[in-house]
Amino acid sequence: xxxxxxxxxxxxxxxxxxxxxxxxxxxxxxxxxxxxxxxxxxxxxxxxxxxxxxxxxxxxxxxxxxxxxxxxxxxxxxxxxxxxxxxxxxxxxxxxxxxxxxxxxxxxxxxxxxxxxxxxxxxxxxxxxxxxxxxxxxxxxxxxxxxxxxxxxxxxxxxxxxxxxxxxxxxxxxxxxxxxxxxxxxxxxxxxxxxxxxxxxxxxxxxxxxxxxxxxxxxxxxxxxxxxxxxxxxxxxxxxxxxxxxxxxxxxxxxxxxxxxxxxxxxxxxxxxxxxxxxxxxxxxxxxxxxxxxxxxxxxxxxxxxxxxxxxxxxxxxxxxxxxxxxxxxxxxxxxxxxxxxxxxxx
Amino acid sequence: xxxxxxxxxxxxxxxxxxxxxxxxxxxxxxxxxxxxxxxxxxxxxxxxxxxxxxxxxxxxxxxxxxxxxxxxxxxxxxxxxxxxxxxxxxxxxxxxxxxxxxxxxxxxxxxxxxxxxxxxxxxxxxxxxxxxxxxxxxxxxxxxxxxxxxxxxxxxxxxxxxxxxxxxxxxxxxxxxxxxxxxxxxxxxxxxxxxxxxxxxxxxxxxxxxxxxxxxxxxxxxxxxxxxxxxxxxxxxxxxxxxxxxxxxxxxxxxxxxxxxxxxxxxxxxxxxxxxxxxxxxxxxxxxxxxxxxxxxxxxxxxxxxxxxxxxxxxxxxxxxxxxxxxxxxxxxxxxxxxxxxxxxxxxxxxxxxxxxxxxxxxxxxxxxxxxxxxxxxxxxxxxx
Amino acid sequence: xxxxxxxxxxxxxxxxxxxxxxxxxxxxxxxxxxxxxxxxxxxxxxxxxxxxxxxxxxxxxxxxxxxxxxxxxxxxxxxxxxxxxxxxxxxxxxxxxxxxxxxxxxxxxxxxxxxxxxxxxxxxxxxxxxxxxxxxxxxxxxxxxxxxxxxxxxxxxx
Lengths: 347, 385, 158
Fold this sequence. Notes:
The complex is a heterotrimer of chains A (347), B (385) and C (158).
Chain A: H1 2-9, H2 11-44, H3 60-69, H4 81-98, E1 103-105, E2 108-109, H5 116-124, H6 126-137, H7 141-172, H8 177-183, H9 200-224, H10 236-239, H11 249-274, H12 289-311, H13 319-346
Antiparallel strand pairs in A: 1-2
Helix pairs in contact in A: 2-3, 2-11, 2-12, 3-11, 4-5, 4-6, 4-11, 6-7, 7-9, 7-13, 9-11, 9-13, 11-12
Chain B: E1 21-25, E2 37-43, E3 46-53, H1 61-65, H2 74-79, H3 86-101, H4 107-136, H5 140-160, E4 169-170, E5 173-174, H6 182-205, H7 208-214, H8 222-227, H9 233-237, H10 244-247, H11 273-296, E6 316-323, E7 328-335, E8 343-347, H12 349-354, H13 357-360, H14 366-376, H15 380-384
Antiparallel strand pairs in B: 1-2, 2-3, 4-5, 6-7, 7-8
Helix pairs in contact in B: 3-4, 4-5, 4-11, 4-14, 5-6, 6-11, 11-14
Chain C: H1 3-13, E1 18-22, E2 30-33, H2 38-47, E3 55-63, E4 67-75, E5 82-90, E6 95-97, H3 106-117, E7 120-122, E8 150-151, E9 154-155
């Protein structure tokens, strides 16, 4: 018994266990979102999905997961074996590493570093490497296409996204995600989308720019995650399945998981930057460690829902139109906003 | 073993060596609407050349016809050519055969045939626009449209027992008369369908992203369309005001009033993909008009009165054509003094329309190629017969 | 314009090209012309102002047991009249000049006629099989066609 307690109080073991909490969260969240996406898609399309397994199909994601786990893992003969196997794990690693700096509640953050969001941007760029590897290693022209398009898209959309983040960092004065949430604590009027915790004049001046930066970041994040209308890299009707074509079984499951994890990651970043992170909209009512976890997850899931809604409503943009939107629309707007925000903060 | 017949070019010069890439789209591909193989020569994302390879669904329809025991026996085979719009296939064959045999059918048969053909036209356009939406990434209009297509298929099932391949229009008449509740249900359908049409029109056709993907893409100029003998929405989308129902009338279309929809280049250039799509969308409104007019005045009569017991034609030949949902569907029947047909050639609109693809997709991007194929609206059963 | 007028215009322009014409008492009036002149006739009927046959509705091959024939169904978008032209060639040497340069729609129709009947369209830019596999032997729609026993190792009749 003492051995057990000593084992669990060992700092390394504690760290490992804490590091696994986001993983457990991601797995549960992925199942819930899978169910949610299919059901929302179905209701938008005027049909019912999943009705057989369990009440209204709630057990279906478990069935899907079991199916993916027991599928045969095929590696094409002329594929580059090492890269082929490494690619999905690299994509997941890039996403999961960023979960270390997400403040799930006022009492829990994986790693409370001062470089928070900077580290997040850097680590999530690993996804591009993974996608390129999967496209190349599949030895399939269609996968290569998907991978090239995806690399171009993610790299170009990082720029307006990072500029939006820069604007927020300038206003809040910190890159630490936990501090960002704390600065927006105290009620809905302190959220950055409504101007932040500043005197009224500054708040009103900041408000339009914050809304613009929010929209810019939202669009860039949708492009980062390869969701419609930016899902050209995995455009099913053109490229079969894009960079995913040759993957099956567990590796495909990891890609899928990575996509959903990435989706939550960018939703979480939006929530932390603009919508107060874990802070409750009612000020001190319903706040505290456990309540703040609830608020954070609720707000994150709202943006996930928004993403799913847009996916099933809009058609997809063509590659050159995608690039046009990024370079000629979002980036100039982001730059203009940063200059304006800089002025306002200096005054 | 896939054989490609194009030869890619490599660029010479001191800078980075580039090479054109040959990619095969198909035969199995989610968006080529069937088993069609397109050999695409790409320079990056730009299409340099498209070479279609057909024949994956060739079922020797024309050879089969030469071994039938009767002209009526050809009708189920004709159904299966364009399996998406079977009524209009039968209509074309029956028009050609009745022209050759000089058979006059009762007026009730004419009215019912027109109603069925227009319902089938709507059903076919629903598939065309729905699958085109999926190619563009909009998954939802497809399902909305299929809900309404179900209602049309129910109407067909009520009449002849089959949902997709009917064997309904026979030479000289029809196989079954319409049941008593058909008129009521059709009127109900016409009223309900208008709501969906409005809904999807707003959801898909005037969506900013959809317009960006389809306007100024795949432009088919007027004279090229006529030279390539394109027909149907492809021709009308390029601005040619030509509709076989009005300009080369068959059965009793000249009794009804409707407008011919012509592409005007509203969102881009005349003859682009958006025009062809909006022609199909608006044609459905016009088909509803025709159906409502026809349903209101079906005369009484016996639909099986003029069906000949034995068809043994006078030697000769005839070419009969109708305006099908994809374009001009024609049958060239060569008859000798025998119950077996001597030669039946099916002029399929999708076959002729598809030949244009090389000309209109030069310089487009790969994503545009998908849009262009979707707008030509091919059904491989018809292309390959 | 009636079929008789079209026939008269053609006879005036090409004195000896018209072999036969059946214009009365027939469902589709047709004009049978000399095979080697079909290309010039095509150019003429497309460009002449009174005729202006700019739309080739259908081009089909027919096997008349001993002879092969090609039938051209033409339509004018301007004047809304139709005519049928026919040519005949012996089965052993089915050479027909191609009208692809006049009406581009003939491109695929002639490829299909070559594929199924074995015509040799002189001047066609891309004469290869369209519906059947490229290495198929024989021309199926001919009346004396025998299905081959084997194709690439697969037994054909079953």
